[in-house]
Amino acid sequence: MKRLKLLSAIFAMVLLMPCLASLSACDSNYDVVLNVYNWGEYISDGSYDSLNVNEAFEKWYFQEYGVRVKVNYDTYDSNESLRAKLESNAVSYDVIIPSDYMIDYFIEHEMLQELNFENIPNFEKNIPEQFRNLFYDPENKYTVPYTYGMVGIVYDTNVVTDVTPKDVTWDLMWSDDYAKQILQFDNSRDAFGTAMYKLGISVNSDCPNDWRAAYDELAAQKPLLKRYVMDQVFNMMESGDAAIAAYYAGDCITMMENSSENVDLQFGYPRDKDGNICTNLFMDAMCIPTCAKNKEVAEAYINFMLSTDLVIDGEPCDIARANAEYIYYATPNSAVYENPEYQEALGKGDEECDYYEMLYPEGFDFAASYNEFAYANLDPELLAFISDLWLDLKLLD
């Protein structure tokens, strides 16, 4: 067990074990089933002696309202998978946690319900202005921020010996020196994004020729790839089965923590020729789809996820901090990221293991970079065009 997991475990054992001791359903009879659909590896689930957030919610809701709730928790591995599931009309979810550009799509297609923020008081209490009214929800009617972050490149220094975190560029993903040791995103938007950042093209371009240029880059890269991946990236990078991958910063910390003894993973944000970070910034936010059957309980769940000062069975429980420490993504919750104990747990100031700096780069202007590099929703015809390019790419020999 490496340093950060150990600190998280200690925190969980000292602060949260009194809560955990009483978190159990009395029987299998529930008044409400709350269906939650989220990314994989994206919630504190009880492993490493952490708090099981969903079980904690079930206990807390019964304590507060006398209603037995069962959280039925399911996961997806891409925004596109989430969209396909919702558009199939074969499922009914109460809470979903998509990324910004997909939220934009859902709002445009009237697939989300407006939130009653009277039921979500922690939004006003804990979410600063810089994380509100973002482009995908300009009036903040439909969403509450969950986590945010950036895409970077994680690499094994036992294989990649000529790169430091401060001089990473997108060219590394196209390097002949590491053929068949490179992993690429297995979804169109992120994969095309890597090529467009490399080329200096806007990832929200409405020009088909820009997307063709990105396609050509990806086609040139394909012979160098070991595989297209999503959640498979964890095992492959941790075990040393691959040496280079573009992935989300929070997940890269997980890989670094869980890597094998013979693997030495480092991480860097790709930079342009002027040395500026040039990569995707994203915000994932909690929403309630129109198919939801339990809106008020869903709003209570969203508010619960922002909580830092709950009491369960007479014991204090900092839900938001426990969750943020476990999933290793930057949190928009000021009560967490300004907490000295949270900063210490992420190694702030530690020359060898400063994950806080990795998630919250010093001097980095989130708002300005977000507006420039975040994915926006695209015109349906352009999305269809991109989808066709992606299919052609995947079929290439």
Based on DSSP secondary structure assignment, what is the total number of beta strands?
Answer: 11
Known CATH architecture of the largest domain: 3-Layer(aba) Sandwich
In percent, how much strand structure appears in the residues?
Answer: 15-25%
Q: What's the CATH H-level superfamily name of the largest domain?
A: Periplasmic binding protein-like II
Poorly predicted runs of 5 or more residues: 1-27
Number of domains: 2
Question: Helicity range of the residues?
Answer: 25-40%
**Mean pLDDT across every amino acid position:** 91
| H/E element sequence | HEHEHEHHEEHHEHEHEEHEEHHHHHH
Tell me the structural class. Answer: alpha/beta
**Could you tell me how far the N terminus lies from the C terminus, measured between alpha carbons in angstroms?**
41 Å
The geometry reads as globular
CATH C-level of the largest domain: Alpha Beta
Radius of gyration: 21 Å
CATH topology description of the largest domain:
D-Maltodextrin-Binding Protein, domain 2
Q: Supply the number of helical segments.
A: 16
The main sheet comes to: 6 strands, mixed
Short description:
This protein has 397 residues and is an alpha/beta fold.
Describe it:
By secondary structure, this protein is of the alpha/beta class. The protein folds into two domains: 3-143 and 287-345, 3-Layer(aba) Sandwich (D-Maltodextrin-Binding Protein, domain 2); 149-281 and 365-395, D-Maltodextrin-Binding Protein, domain 2, CATH 3.40.190.10. The protein is 40% helix and 15% strand. Strands 4, 5, 6, 7, 8 and 9 form a six-stranded mixed β-sheet that branches. The chain has a three-stranded parallel β-sheet with strand order 2-1-3. Strand 10 and strand 11 form a beta hairpin. Helix 7 (208-221) packs parallel to helix 16 (380-395). Residues 1-27 have low confidence and may be disordered.
